[in-house]
Design a protein that fits this description.
By secondary structure, the protein is an all-alpha fold. It is 80% helix and 0% strand. It has six helices and no strands. Helix 2 runs antiparallel to helix 3. The protein is globular, with a radius of gyration of 17 Å.
């Protein structure tokens, strides 16, 4: 796949890039003695930038192949950094992190194969966005150390969505590749 540099430097893509840059900082803030309020501000800023980048791209007619890559990649990097930080502080289960990161790696690799073959980047879907939302709830629950029964419910719902979204993306890519 040959994506030109044109379309990279849009406002919506810069918002995604800012989340990528913020990813290591969330790890440092969670694992260090910085005030928790700093974690809140950075996480909220990242969340708002995630909401805004798609809105900005659509409203300014700046939907680009770069944006289809950068937005989900930024989400994956921010989530992975947060997961690893919460694991380091013993607030998140390693099996859950393995499932989240394993699914993301599979989706990225399959997306690269698909993009190379079809010459187009597949966009995110509702089920993928819903899964990221529930992953966020698990991370919030772990960060705030909510009651174990609530965490168990969050883990269950999120893990079910992780499996469903992996199946959904796999099926979608298989059908698209077969039809192209």
């Amino acid at each position: 796949m040959n994506i030109s540099i044109q379309g990279l430097w849009t406002l919506s893509n810069l918002l995604s890039i800012s989340r990528m840059i913020a990813a290591p900082f969330i790890y440092v803030l969670i694992t260090s003695d910085y005030p928790r309020s700093w974690v809140y501000v950075l996480a909220l800023t990242a969340y708002v930038s995630d909401l805004l980048d798609g809105y900005v791209a659509r409203s300014r007619n700046e939907i680009t192949e770069w944006g289809k890559i950068l937005d989900p990649l930024a989400d994956k990097l921010f989530v992975a950094s947060t997961c690893l930080a919460l694991m380091t502080t013993d607030h998140l289960s390693i099996w859950y992190i393995a499932v989240v990161i394993g699914r993301d790696v599979l989706i990225v690799l399959a997306g690269l194969v698909f993009a190379n073959k079809a010459q187009v980047v597949p966009p995110s879907t509702f089920i993928g966005k819903a899964t990221v939302f529930w992953i966020g709830l698990v991370l919030l629950g772990a960060f705030f150390q909510v009651e174990s029964s609530i965490m168990a419910a969050l883990y269950t719902i999120s893990t079910g969505l992780l499996a469903l979204s992996l199946f959904h993306y796999g099926k979608r890519m298989f059908i698209s590749m077969r039809n192209s």
